[in-house]
Amino acid sequence: MDPIATVKDGFNQVAKRQKHYHSISQAVTDRAFEGFVESLVQILTKNDPKTVLTELKLKLDSLLPINHLQESQKETNTSLTKFEKVLGKSDVFPASISIDLDHQLVDKMLVEYLYRQGLFEVGELLIKEAEVEVDDQLSEVIARSLEIHRVTEPLKEKDTEPAMRWISENSEKLKEEASKLELELVSLKYWEILRQRKRPEALRFARAYFPKFASLHSVKIRKLIVALLWVRDLENYPHAEELFPLGWEEASRELTKLYYNLHDQPSSSLLAVALSAGVESLPRLLKLIRVMGLKEEEWGEMKELPVDLELGDEFRFHSVFVCPVSREQSDVYNPPMMMPCRHVLCKETILRLCLCCSTRRFKCPYCPAYTTASACRQLYI
Amino acid sequence: MEIDDPVTNGNTDAVMTESAPPFTPSPPVPASRSSQLTESLKLEHQLLRVPFEHYKKTIRANHRCLEKEVASVVSSVGDLADSNWSKDVTVSRLTSLVSRLQGLKRKLEEGSNVENLQAQRCRARIDHLDSADAENITEWNNTKLKRILVDYMLRMSYFETASKLSESCNILDLVDIDIFREAKKVIDALKRREVASALAWCADNKTRLKKSKSKFEFQLRLQEFIELIRADSYKQAIQYARKHLTPWGATHMNELQRVLATLAFKSTTECTKYKVLFELGQWDLLVDQFKQEFCKLYGMTMEPLLNIYLQAGLSALKTPYGFEEGCTKEDPLSQESFRKLALPLPYSKQEHSKLVCYISKELMDTENPPLVFPNGYVYSTKALKEMADKNKGEVKCPRTGLVCNYTDLVKAYIS
């Protein structure tokens, strides 16, 4: 059962009951109002206030659906409590160790993140409010992000001039990846001109920029040129989507990545990477802590987590070899070894299999081949 | 190792009670999304709880107000009917009741409007949680990231930055800047050794605090009493105690007695048991207690969400390779500041081999198997094939410089 639907239903119940309550309360006040006005009129016309008032009192007692009001109030209250139960108790949140995070470090990372995202004003505010010390490293980060922003911001207005200029300035260092990106930007800009039906301008643009791609990407260039004939009906140009595998936004992102790689910086904010890893792994971590019955700080005292938190592949930065027999991670002291039958085990497992005698024959756990420890080659992954 | 839910052991943590039956039939949800949602919903408790608390408070206040007014109007009518005023007086009394009713009606409408706004806020957040699906998951996660950052900023009291960030990213209705500002006011007042704002906060949230049996208000009163003693105004202190401390006597007699005993000691006493009560550190304890009560009230974690997610992420990313030289720049642990933060955390566990090609940074799997050079260095098939195509069948190991033919390479079988 979709838990969010449950929450939604619970909340709708509360809102419904409250609406009901309001309609009843309005009825109550309206009726009382009418009754009072009527009695007032009666008193003013006739002369006996006492009887009128007693009449009014009786009328009120019978007219006013006060019982309904109270019932409705109770119902609203029950639905409120039910909804609270659905929300659940504020749950186990042990995933903080007692050591406080050094917030100055975090603040610096935050500034970096903000500048990379292009939120310069927010970054400045943060530096001021948090009294962040802007050292050399940070000022370099700031300068870089401002620079790349000058190149990618115009792309939002479909102005490719600064980007093309930057690519050509750095072309020897960028080589291949840049030329693909250049082609993408050129095609996107050309398409934009065509969309505005400026045929002569498109032709001029093509003459200026297409030639250098003509040899390697002739098919694509040909398709682009032929599109000139489709100016009036550009949406129906067959296979138009294939011409732009990236699109404006993705191209902008790729450009940013290229830029940072060129300057030997990580391609995205490291804080964002770490936090995304956290978002992905926290549910499993909490489950682990709950299942192991750990208290708040205890999880941090473990040397190694007992379970794989199964992060996505985008968080895989290093090769890892896990011996299929001993299930241990390889490191410098226990490297992977390949046997002549091409299967790979870690060194310790092999030593155990051959009983530490390097000339003794043992059978590979995966195939019928026999081999010796000395015939195994160390692998460097 | 599979994590199985334990069948034993009084695991009393709250589990999402999905006992409320569905009112409308909903389409079957795939199991993976459902379990992921359950977990992430638990973590989003704070998001939903804050507007809901406000909504609940308004509803209850409106209920009480209406009840009171209706009761008093009815009883006034009763009084009028029983008494024997003259016609004019009766008329004027009745007219005043009528105008009172009008006022009530207006108040009801206003109250209803406020409630609707708050209900809308709640709904907007529930809808936001619901909107996470496969297509916009990256954007949704992006928003979540920003929410986590705003939460951190609010707790560190960087209010301007938090507001600017929420405005720039359009997440104003997903964050609760106001309650943090209120909290800061109370904390600042406490740091200046004034209890007034804190007491006002307690009065505001009386029912909730009573339900959780909090003795925060009691502590505040005790502290005020001690301050009076410190200023040597004993008479005032006794009056104060009579007025404010006696109601708590039934439940907290021991503490009350201990503090009252300070009447007999002066503020400069050397007796340790009572000296500690006069220390200024007591105010810091009050600040901490306030923070605890505040977080408990709104279902918030004591630590900023950022700390929690960051530590989880760092631990999940922590591998021995991250600390070596030549670690790729993309790994957060390559940077000094991250390493410092990750130092006390556990390493992550890897269950399966995953090989990343040094050349192409791609995963080496069955579609892209690892190839081994004669000297033992391993790279992916795709990368080496590309290299071979460009160099007439020759490949060179980027790390050792060894050159050999593509055909000399051997495929390794890594499970």
Automatic annotation (TrEMBL), chain A:
Keywords: Cytoplasm, Metal-binding, Zinc, Zinc-finger. InterPro entries: CRA_dom, CTLH/CRA, CTLH_C, Fyv10_fam, LisH, Rmd5_dRing, ZF_RING_GID. Residues 323-367 form the RING-Gid-type domain. Residues 144-201 form the CTLH domain. The keyword Protease does not apply. Its main location: cytoplasm. One of its GO terms (cellular component) is cytoplasm. It comes from the Eukaryota. The keyword Translocase does not apply. GO terms for molecular function: ubiquitin protein ligase activity; zinc ion binding. It holds the Pfam family CTLH. SMART domains: CRA, CTLH, LisH. GO terms for biological process: proteasome-mediated ubiquitin-dependent protein catabolic process. It is found in: Cytoplasm. A zinc finger (RING-Gid-type) spans 323-367. Transmembrane segments: none annotated. This is LisH domain-containing protein. It comes from Brassica campestris (Field mustard).
Automatic annotation (TrEMBL), chain B:
PROSITE patterns: CTLH, LISH, ZF_RING_GID. Residues 1-37 are annotated as: Disordered. Residues 327-400 form the RING-Gid-type domain. GO terms for cellular component: cytoplasm. GO terms for biological process: proteasome-mediated ubiquitin-dependent protein catabolic process. One of its GO terms (molecular function) is zinc ion binding. A zinc finger (RING-Gid-type) spans 327-400. PANTHER family: E3 UBIQUITIN-PROTEIN TRANSFERASE MAEA, MACROPHAGE ERYTHROBLAST ATTACHER-RELATED. This is LisH domain-containing protein.
